TrEMBL record:
Domain PH: 2-109
Origin species: Macaca nemestrina (Pig-tailed macaque)
The keyword Membrane appears for this protein: yes
Location in the cell: Membrane
Gene3D superfamilies assigned: Pleckstrin-homology domain (PH domain)/Phosphotyrosine-binding domain (PTB)
PROSITE patterns recorded: PH_DOMAIN (PS50003)
Protein's recorded name: PH domain-containing protein
Domain of life: Eukaryota
Amino acid sequence: MAFVKSGWLLRQSTILKRWKKNWFDLWSDGHLIYYDDQTRQNIEDKVHMPVDCINIRTGQECRDIQPPDGKSKDCMLQIVCRDGKTISLCAEILLSYVFNLKSIFYLNF
């Protein structure tokens, strides 16, 4: 199993709605795993995109969310999961992540 994409993304916390920097790994088997930092010691959560994800929203499609200070809504990404959870993210270079996430998401269809 290999990385498809790794790097820093801003993630909005679920309770306080604050933006936090997390290290993300997208694996070739479709797992998106995020950690406290790039040492990958503490997993915060993981999503198996082909199984758990029902939609990926980008830019203006992102609902009920404001981007972090100094960022455009065009840099936003939301992963909507079957269990009702929505993971809100902000990337420096969104297109790269969107392409990789959507290609893994649509492999199942």
